[in-house]
Write a structure and sequence with these properties.
Blueprint lengths: L2 H23 L4 E4 L2 H5 L7 E2 H5 L4 E5 L6 E5 L2 E5 L5 E3 L5 E2 L2 E4 L5 E5 L5 H9 L8 E17 L10 H4 L4 E17 L10 E8 L5 E19 L2 E4 L4 H5 L7 H15 L5
GO molecular function: acetolactate decarboxylase activity
Family: Belongs to the alpha-acetolactate decarboxylase family.
Keywords: Acetoin biosynthesis, Decarboxylase, Lyase, Signal
């Protein structure tokens, strides 16, 4: 084989490799602002505005500065579920201390029958995942029964850890409601950055009810999901984040937060 031919084939191989990398770079990435461990430590303020966050995706979950309620991003709209149960569209100037969003491009759509509990619903979702070491964005739109959600009142300094603050959550319930579960499923390898497993928020079709999901059952619905293999993490540039102890293993605190939610709601673990 001539050296010239070898060089041409080597160059072609580089071009194919570059094209492959370029294609991967165009895949939707899950954009993460801050970390779950920072929130557990009491980092409740960030610099990122909702206007800036919306440029990163149209689907996702999070909270607002001061831990003021729950963020639900669905179909490009960013909802703010307050601790009094009210729902409003967030202002572009509102800020978030923690958020997970992406451009939602579902690759699978599956009709779902009844599921008697949130764990049962998650078991149905598990059947569609394949590789559980990936991140997933999951939308479940349908008719829900016995749904309970929560929102935490806005906090004031000095901020207490989330395990303490979560005890002040307000819980809301509906016997039956049509709406959408907006979920991020994170693999175990994401500990510290995200909540391993499922994390669900909800928004009703009439946009009057929502929040962080504590428990529910599905009457019928449709699941759409997107597998995500790219993660983009941006960290806050404030003193609270800089001082937060993120060397500490906060798994026990996360379990305590979940237990507090379970005890107060009396239903399924979030």
């Amino acid at each position: 084989m001539s050296s010239a031919l070898s060089c041409r084939r080597w160059a072609a191989g580089l071009l194919l490799g570059a094209a492959s990398l370029a294609g991967a770079a165009q895949e939707p990435a899950l954009y993460v602002y801050s970390t779950i461990d920072a929130l557990l430590a009491g980092v409740y303020e960030g610099e990122l505005t909702i206007g800036q966050l919306s440029a990163r995706g149209d689907f996702g979950i999070g909270t607002y500065n001061g831990l003021d309620g729950e963020l639900v991003a669905h179909e490009g709209r960013f909802y703010h579920v307050r601790a009094d149960g009210s729902v409003r569209i967030a202002a572009p100037t509102d800020r978030t201390p923690l958020a997970y969003v992406l451009p939602f491009v579902p690759t699978r759509t599956v009709p779902l029958g009844a599921a008697a509990s949130l764990p049962a619903l998650e078991a149905l979702a598990d059947q569609q995942l394949g590789n559980k070491n990936m991140f997933y964005a999951i939308e479940i739109k349908g008719r829900f029964t016995g749904i309970s959600t929560r929102a935490i009142p806005a906090q004031v300094r000095p901020y207490r850890p989330l395990a303490e603050v979560s005890k002040s959550q307000n819980v809301f319930a509906r016997d039956a409601v049509a709406g959408t579960l907006v979920g991020i499923r994170s693999p175990s390898l994401s500990k510290g950055i995200s909540v391993p497993g499922y994390h669900w928020h909800f928004i009703s079709d009439d946009r009057s009810f929502g929040g962080h999901v504590l428990g529910t059952a599905l009457e019928r619905g449709v699941l759409r999901l997107a597998q995500v293999r790219r993660l983009e993490v941006e960290l806050p540039l404030n003193d609270d984040f800089a001082r937060a102890d993120q060397d500490k293993d906060r798994a026990a605190e996360l379990r305590k937060v979940e237990s507090a939610q379970h005890d107060k709601d009396g239903g399924d673990k979030p």
